[in-house]
Structures are given as structure tokens and as C-alpha cells.
């Protein structure tokens, strides 16, 4: 069962991890990644944080939350952001995990469906 607490804990976890990954990218990876790779990594971090904030906001405004939107946002972040992290880091090592390439747009689609589910719930 998806509860207020589920939304807030998931959002807070994603938010905390985005801070860790953002700092890791900005400091530890700055001299390892190309500018393009660093930009891609930052995109994953940004989208993760944006959706962490959405999950927390929905947790505090639970009347607008829907269990389906929780799953779309949560799985979307995992697929979108984490596949980008994997692609960038494996590419930097010269062993790009190409199987992750199709996962990223699926994650983006899930994030979009999360927003559309939210829109549907409000309307």
C-alpha cells in the first residue's frame, strides 16, 4: 500500500542520493569525465532531484497523489537517472554498457506518465 510516508521516504531518499551523486560528479569525476559526459551525468542528477521534490510534495499534498503516479515517478527515476549514471561511468572506463541505452528513454516515458497521471488526478 502506497502511503504518505512512502512518497516522502522515497522522495527524501532520491533527494539525498542526488546530493551525493551531484557532489561525486562535481568533485571526484571532474577530472575523469569529458565535458559532455559530465553534462549528461548532471542531467541525471537534476531529473532525480526534480522528481524527489515532486514525490515529497505529493506526500504532503496526498489528496493529489495516486499510487500509479508514485510507481511511474519512482521507476522512472531509477530507469532514467541511474541508466545515465551507468552509461556515463562505464563510458568513462571504455566499457560502455550499451544495454542501458534503451532504458533511459523508457525511464523518461515513465516520468512523463507520472506527470500525466498527476494531471489526470487533479482534473
UniProtKB/TrEMBL annotation:
Pfam families: DUF423
Statement: the UniProt record of this protein carries the keyword Transmembrane: yes
UniProt keyword annotation of Nucleotide-binding present: no
Membrane-protein topology: Multi-pass membrane protein
InterPro entries on file: DUF423
Cellular compartments annotated: Membrane
Keyword line: Membrane, Transmembrane, Transmembrane helix
Signal peptide residue numbers: none
Segments traversing the membrane: 6-26, 70-92, 99-120
Family: Belongs to the UPF0382 family.
Name of the protein in its database record: DUF423 domain-containing protein
Protein species of origin: Pseudofulvibacter geojedonensis
UniProt lineage: Bacteria, Pseudomonadati, Bacteroidota, Flavobacteriia, Flavobacteriales
Amino acid at each position: 500500500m502506497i502511503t504518505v510516508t512512502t512518497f516522502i521516504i522515497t522522495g527524501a531518499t532520491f533527494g539525498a542520493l542526488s546530493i551525493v551523486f551531484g557532489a561525486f560528479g562535481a568533485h571526484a569525476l571532474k577530472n575523469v569525465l569529458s565535458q559532455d559526459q559530465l553534462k549528461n551525468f548532471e542531467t541525471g542528477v537534476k531529473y532525480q532531484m526534480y522528481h524527489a521534490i515532486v514525490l515529497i510534495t505529493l506526500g504532503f499534498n496526498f489528496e493529489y497523489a495516486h499510487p500509479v503516479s508514485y510507481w511511474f515517478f519512482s521507476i522512472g527515476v531509477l530507469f532514467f537517472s541511474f541508466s545515465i549514471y551507468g552509461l556515463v561511468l562505464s563510458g568513462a572506463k571504455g566499457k560502455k554498457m550499451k544495454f542501458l541505452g534503451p532504458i533511459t528513454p523508457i525511464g523518461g516515458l515513465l516520468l512523463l506518465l507520472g506527470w500525466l497521471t498527476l494531471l489526470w488526478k487533479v482534473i
